[in-house]
Amino acid sequence: xxxxxxxxxxxxxxxxxxxxxxxxxxxxxxxxxxxxxxxxxxxxxxxxxxxxxxxxxxxxxxxxxxxxxxxxxxxxxxxxxxxxxxxxxxxxxxxxxxxxxxxxxxxxxxxxxxxxxxxxxxxxxxxxxxxxxxxxxxxxxxxxxxxxxxxxxxxxxxxxxxxxxxxxxxxxxxxxxxxxxxxxxxxxxxxxxxxxxxxxxxxxxxxxxxxxxxxxxxxxxxxxxxxxxxxxxxxxxxxxxxxxxxxxxxxxxxxxxxxxxxxxxxxxxxxxxxxxxxxxxxxxxxxxxxxxxxxxxxxxxxxxxxxxxxxxxxxxxxxxxxxxxxxxxxxxxxxxxxxxxxxxxxxxxxxxxxxxxxxxxxxxxxxxxxxxxxxxxxxxxxxxxxxxxxxxxxxxxxxxxxxxxxxxxxxxxxxxxxxxxxxxxxxxxxxxxxxxxxxxxxxxxxxxxxxxxxxxxxxxxxxxxxxxxxxxxxxxxxxxxxxxxxxxxxxxxxxxxxxxxxxxxxxxxxxxxxxxxxxxxxxxxxxxxxxxxxxxxxxxxxxxxxxxxxxxxxxxxxxxxxxxxxxxxxxxxxxxxxxxxxxxxxxxxxxxxxxxxxxxxxxx
Length: 604
Fold this sequence. Notes:
Layout: H1 2-55, H2 60-64, H3 68-71, H4 80-97, E1 101-105, E2 111-114, H5 132-140, E3 142-148, E4 155-163, E5 171-177, H6 180-189, E6 192-196, E7 202-205, H7 220-229, E8 260-264, E9 267-276, E10 281-288, H8 290-328, H9 332-379, H10 387-405, H11 409-434, E11 445-448, H12 449-467, E12 472-474, E13 481-484, H13 486-504, E14 512-519, E15 522-529, H14 559-569, E16 573-578, E17 584-591, H15 600-603
Parallel strand pairs: 12-14
Antiparallel strand pairs: 1-2, 1-5, 3-4, 4-5, 6-7, 6-10, 8-9, 9-10, 11-13, 14-15, 15-17, 16-17
Helix pairs in contact: 1-8, 10-11, 10-12, 12-13, 13-14
């Protein structure tokens, strides 16, 4: 015991040295995970706020296009009264709707009317054909684009719709939405939130240092296109430093990208992105990781203190054990003498124990051998598969008796023939069960798989009728042929159908489907039921001999074991899986026979 305590003390010292590092790592990971979840929630709220702000004005251009004063601008003769009416109407709508600006362009991109027509920054007469929102609306019917206004120098989100007037040139109605209130909200809350366009340029941000800066270095193509479109007119994008570290690209096209570590103004930030469609914007949410190191250090210190306390306790126990050992030495001499005198007796007792152990093992081996021999004898006496034909035979003979009382001689003869057929079927089944353990007990032949399946359904029909189930056979022409023994294969199908009937017993909507398919040189017959299914812990043992989940007396647990052995004898296999919506799918898969398949009508 003393050695164990000493070893534990040394082990505890090692653990005490390692524990702070592990605690620091775990605490750091947990804190970063919590921050990532917080950032993800912030991204979800930001995305909803952006969508809500934009959708406020999405249909405003189409609504304006239905007004006669706006549609009159599509005419060839735009009189002063027509222009005045359109300008006043746009001015009124801006005041009521809360949009930044409203204006109408002709098919050349020239502003015809504007809500700010009476100001120094009036759009009227200006050419906006270079803007993507005008080109998109002209060709596709609508457009959207965020940019700094070339006339007002104020940024905004432009939403456009093309208005088609019969017999006239189309006009483009533009609404400019102001998203700066979102930015003001982020600044007031002190959150590190920003929105970047598809080029990765931040155009709205709660951090003023990020605005009009690219997330990563811009390509020459991006700089050239932004210059053509005058997207951020007046901002020197090429000279600004990217926000993300060199070598790290923004997660363009990813719905939910992993978090990134960013250094900004000497601070370590954890940043997470999400995508806003249909513009392909990137929403960035970041938070400082400065407190994570302090929290992780606290837990590392706590782990170190706990380790030192545990090590001190073990050292105290070690010293106490040394004192106890010194006291016990005094009694060792007396114990040695007693041990010498009792050694011979102990040896004899040990020999007797070994002899008894060998006898017990031999007895267990004999019991086990007898048990296995009894199992071999029982395999030739299994006749539980004939229970259904016996029930049908009893019903047939009872019907024959009733008909005999009514002097229905011809119908009695038919029932007797049915009874003889059932007896012959039982004889064949019992014969094959008795010879099941011997190879070559029956000759292989070309067997029609659909005929076998229908025979099994006929045998199970009385049981199915009692349960109120009508098994459905799904098979398409032609019917395949396999090399097997018809009676044995019929036994397999019958066992699977009966198991399915047992599974759906008591259900309000029992359903059994037998589906036959052919693929890649193999034929598969799947019995599907909507019963309670097979428990996961039973799925691996379901084909073991004598394993059963039924109540005592309802079965020996040999049915699926025998069926599995029969199918394997013919080169096939049986698999079990959970059916969609609950229940069990039992599939028999066998290779196709050498003979060609023949029409399904012949199988019937």
